[in-house]
Design goal:
Layout lengths: L3 H13 L4 H13 L1 H21 L13
Helix pairs in contact: 1-2, 1-3
Length: 68
């Protein structure tokens, strides 16, 4: 089983690209069991979405709308 340190590293790698199947499965299993890492993963996703929104590169179709 992964340690929390290993899991956070895999979460970061997942944000940057694809994980191998074994790493994806290990991370998924760890996230099922570890509430702290689930919270950390949600925080990473929130931060990534916020940065993309600020940079104007998010996938939200309303993000390109000009304010009147």
């Amino acid at each position: 089983m992964l340690t929390c340190k290993d899991a956070t590293e895999l979460m970061s790698q997942k944000m940057d690209g694809n994980l191998s199947v074994p790493n994806r499965l290990s991370l998924g299993f760890h996230l099922l069991l570890c509430k702290g890492c689930r919270n950390f993963n949600e925080q990473l996703r929130f931060i990534r979405k916020a940065v993309k929104h600020i940079a104007g590169t998010d996938d939200d179709p309303d993000s390109n709308r000009q304010n009147p």
